[in-house]
Task: inverse folding
């Protein structure tokens, strides 16, 4: 009977605990279900983002590959262009070098030919002088040998040296500072070869030597001889200019202005024209227009 009463008491107590335990289990199961849903949502979101990231990475790789391919193609294209251009340029450089060599050889040939022509012209001049001398009437018998007149006649009978040698000797002596020796040689050249192409220069250098020695009056006479005997020679403008400089140095301003103006009027393209123009500007005179006088 005691056992039966105890069992009945337990049965009476169990219904009181059973509903409470069942409620907690249900709430726990609901929480677990919610957590599982959240995990599934996170997994799905992760999968979606990872897939998008994979697409972006693949697109980046594709773009990089395309860029590399384009750069490789451009490099090959540039290399091909360089190779195609290099060959013609190399050929052109070779042709230019060959042309430069040919031009240099031609210039040497022209210079050589010019030198030969000058020598031939000088020889013709010398020959003409000899012919002229042979056509002169017979000279009077020379004075007795040993007399001063006889020695002078012997010295003036023939040119001392050929024209070319005499001119080159005089020019070399003048450049080396042997003014007195060069002066005598230029004077001999004018004495024997005053109708040659180098005669105007020889007469001009005589004036230069006298001017360098401060013999200004004599130098002015020398330049006047250039202007009178060789009015259309390349040394004519130089003679005008040097004459103007001496006149200016000796205080003859108006006369100097006329010489500078003559250079600009008659020889506006000569080498001394800019210097003559500059001298007129220093003197406060407006240079004339470069029109050749008639």
Result:
């Amino acid at each position: 009977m005691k056992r039966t009463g105890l069992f009945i008491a337990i049965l009476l107590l169990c219904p009181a605990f059973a509903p409470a335990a069942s409620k907690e289990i249900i709430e726990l199961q609901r929480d677990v279900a919610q957590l599982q849903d959240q995990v599934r949502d996170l997994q799905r979101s992760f999968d979606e983002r990872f897939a998008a990231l994979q697409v972006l990475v693949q697109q980046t790789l594709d773009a990089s590959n395309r860029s590399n391919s384009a750069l490789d193609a451009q490099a090959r294209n540039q290399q091909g262009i360089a190779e195609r251009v290099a060959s013609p340029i190399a050929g052109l450089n070779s042709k230019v070098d060959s042309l430069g060599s040919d031009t240099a050889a031609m210039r040497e040939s022209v210079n050589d030919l010019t030198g030969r022509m000058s020598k031939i012209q000088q020889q013709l001049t010398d020959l003409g002088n000899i012919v002229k001398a042979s056509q002169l009437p017979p000279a009077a018998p020379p004075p007795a040998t040993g007399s001063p007149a006889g020695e002078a006649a012997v010295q003036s009978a023939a040119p001392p040296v050929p024209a070319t040698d005499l001119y080159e000797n005089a020019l070399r002596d003048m450049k080396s500072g042997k003014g007195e020796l060069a002066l005598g040689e230029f004077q001999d050249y004018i004495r024997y070869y005053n109708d040659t192409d180098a005669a105007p220069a020889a007469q001009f250098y005589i004036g230069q030597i006298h001017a360098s020695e401060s013999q200004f009056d004599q130098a002015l006479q020398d330049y006047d001889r250039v202007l009178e005997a060789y009015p259309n020679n390349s040394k004519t403008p130089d003679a005008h200019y040097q004459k103007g400089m001496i006149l200016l140095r000796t205080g003859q301003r108006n006369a100097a202005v006329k010489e500078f103006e003559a250079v600009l009027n008659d020889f506006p393209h000569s080498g001394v024209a800019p210097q003559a123009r500059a001298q007129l500007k220093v003197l406060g005179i407006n240079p004339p227009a470069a029109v050749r006088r008639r």
